């Protein structure tokens, strides 16, 4: 059995050259090779292309690399966590390539598997697709996504043996598993290194043939940032928002596999009890998400896609981002509940970008909008300036076309049936005249 060299973080960083393409694992504040990235930020390496889900996450090494001007191009799905990343992209100092989260994971997996790329319905008809090749496959427009590979991949695992076999912990598999296959040089930062033979072969996630170097480094609560603890007190939520969450919850049935987006959809999680038999999915790699623990943080519990420590219900499972989005794209998510910026008469959804606003990231919204069997949108009925959000035609950049099944606002519930927008019910305290006045889309009343 081969022995993988064990080196320091500084020695690992010295293996990166000017102009290299590097991958950095992690999702939010968990599973990140923070020590490797911080060591790289201490070097003079420049002109890097950085591939990662959360590029430039504040507090992580990617953020320091960006601040140092070491990154010339960033490829990822989510940049909005870091205003510096958004500002650098808008000023032209940083070249940015946005890729939907599921497409990013699959592109990395394809790179590691020696596949040139793939076609996916995700992002079809949106500005994110750009000038990509589009084919009609199974009656749907599908966008070609080229595979991604790197010169160097920095990944984070929980345990390794001296042969380089890696074991990840809870939701820390995320992008790490795929990235460990998709680079010419793979350096794994791990919490603990044990002798060969101490890891159960049944539990190894990344075989040692992929790994070139090991770095032993211990993660601390400080490394986890906001994920370090659930402390912070109960959220204050308006009755109108809770009404929307309750109405969305009423659409769920026992056995449903459900993914909840950020904003109002997260409130639905507070209403779900274990006895309801609803199975929550989070795109960073967990099925069977339970409520937040009363105390503790990401050192003790898994973390959901919103970086919040959660519990695992009996029967829960962990997996990486490629498996997670295979569930989404393969139609294994029964219901996705997401926020929205605009919905129009054609069931089109816009929820990821506002021109002129410091927003830069698609995350997993495009994959979920296209892949879920049923899509429910919860949102305020109007914008802060009073303008309508349920409109004849979306004016904001599309997330997906023709995908919305139900819209729930503080005023009304709309459904799409036979390509018509139908007003199904009024919410508590709302009147029909108010709904008519605040909705510019044409709709049919069937209450």
The multimeric state of the shown protein is: single chain
Number of helices: 12
**Beta strand count:** 24
Global shape: globular
Low-confidence stretches: none
Q: What is the level 1 CATH name of the largest domain? A: Alpha Beta
> Main β-sheet: number of strands, strand sense, barrel status?
10 strands, mixed
Strand order of the largest sheet: 15-14-13-12-16-19-21-22-23-24
From the 3D coordinates, which CATH architecture of the largest domain would you assign?
A: 3-Layer(aba) Sandwich
| Whole-angstrom Rg | 22 Å
Structural domain tally: 2
CATH topology of the largest domain: Glutaconate Coenzyme A-transferase
Structural class: alpha/beta
Strand content range: 25-35%
What is the assigned CATH homologous superfamily of the largest domain? Glutaconate Coenzyme A-transferase
Mean pLDDT: 91
Helix share bin: 10-25%
The separation of the N and C termini measures: 70 Å
Describe the structure.
50% of the residues are buried. The N and C termini lie far apart (70 Å). By secondary structure, the chain is an alpha/beta fold. Strands 15-14-13-12-16-19-21-22-23-24 form a ten-stranded mixed β-sheet, with helices on both faces. Strands 1, 2, 3, 4, 8, 9, 10 and 11 form an eight-stranded mixed β-sheet that branches. A three-stranded antiparallel β-sheet has the order 5-7-6, with helices on one face. Helix 2 (34-41) packs parallel to helix 3 (61-67) and helix 5 (101-113) crosses helix 10 (321-329). The chain folds into two domains: 9-221, Glutaconate Coenzyme A-transferase (3-Layer(aba) Sandwich), CATH 3.40.1080; 239-445, Glutaconate Coenzyme A-transferase. Helix content is 20%, strand content 26%. The chain is globular. The protein has helices at residues 9-13, 34-41, 61-67, 83-91, 101-113, 176-179, 221-224, 239-249, 264-269, 321-329, 365-371, 432-437, and strands at 21-24, 48-51, 71-76, 95-98, 117-120, 134-137, 140-146, 150-161, 166-167, 183-194, 213-216, 257-260, 279-282, 286-289, 312-318, 335-339, 342-344, 349-350, 374-378, 390-391, 406-408, 412-417, 420-426, 444-445. Strand 3, helix 4 (83-91) and strand 4 (95-98) form a beta-alpha-beta unit. The model has no long low-confidence stretch (mean pLDDT 91).
């Amino acid at each position: 059995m081969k022995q993988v060299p064990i080196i320091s973080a500084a020695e690992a960083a010295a293996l990166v050259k000017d102009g290299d393409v590097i991958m950095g694992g992690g999702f939010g504040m968990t599973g990140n090779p923070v020590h490797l990235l911080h060591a790289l930020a201490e070097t003079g390496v420049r002109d890097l292309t950085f591939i990662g889900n959360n590029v430039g996450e504040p507090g992580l090494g990617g953020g320091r690399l960006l601040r140092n001007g070491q990154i010339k191009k960033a490829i990822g799905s989510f940049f909005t966590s870091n205003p510096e990343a958004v500002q650098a992209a808008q000023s032209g100092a940083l070249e940015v390539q946005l890729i939907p989260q599921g497409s990013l994971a699959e592109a990395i997996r394809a790179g590691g598997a020696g596949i040139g790329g793939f076609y996916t319905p995700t992002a079809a008809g949106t500005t994110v697709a750009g000038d990509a090749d589009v084919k009609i496959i199974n009656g749907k427009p599908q966008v070609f996504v080229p595979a991604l590979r790197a010169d160097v991949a920095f990944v984070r695992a929980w345990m390794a043996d001296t042969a380089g076999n890696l074991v990840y912990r809870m939701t820390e598999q995320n992008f790490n598993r795929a990235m460990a296959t998709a680079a010419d040089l793979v350096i794994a930062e791990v919490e603990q290194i044990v002798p060969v033979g101490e890891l159960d072969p049944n539990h190894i996630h990344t075989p040692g043939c992929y790994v070139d170097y090991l770095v032993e480094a211990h993660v601390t609560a400080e490394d986890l940032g906001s994920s370090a603890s659930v402390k912070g007190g109960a959220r204050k939520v308006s009755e109108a928002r809770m009404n929307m969450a309750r109405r969305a919850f009423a659409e769920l049935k026992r056995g449903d596999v459900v993914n909840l987006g950020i904003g109002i959809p997260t409130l639905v999680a507070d209403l779900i009890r274990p006895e309801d038999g609803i199975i929550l999915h989070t795109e960073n790699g967990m099925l069977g998400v339970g409520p937040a623990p009363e105390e503790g943080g990401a050192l003790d519990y898994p973390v959901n896609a919103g970086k919040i420590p959660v519990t695992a219900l009996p029967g829960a499972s962990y997996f990486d981002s490629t498996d997670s989005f295979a569930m989404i794209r393969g139609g294994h998510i029964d219901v996705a509940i997401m926020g929205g910026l605009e919905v129009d008469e054609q069931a089109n959804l816009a929820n990821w970008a506002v021109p002129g606003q410091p927003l830069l990231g698609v995350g997993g919204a495009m994959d979920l909008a296209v892949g879920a069997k049923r899509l429910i949108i919860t949102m305020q009925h109007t914008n802060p300036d009073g303008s309508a959000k349920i409109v004849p035609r979306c004016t904001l950049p599309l997330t997906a076309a023709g995908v919305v099944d139900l819209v729930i606002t503080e005023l009304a519930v709309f459904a799409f049936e036979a390509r018509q927008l139908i007003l199904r019910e009024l919410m508590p305290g709302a009147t029909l005249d108010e709904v008519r006045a605040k909705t510019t889309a044409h709709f049919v009343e069937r209450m």
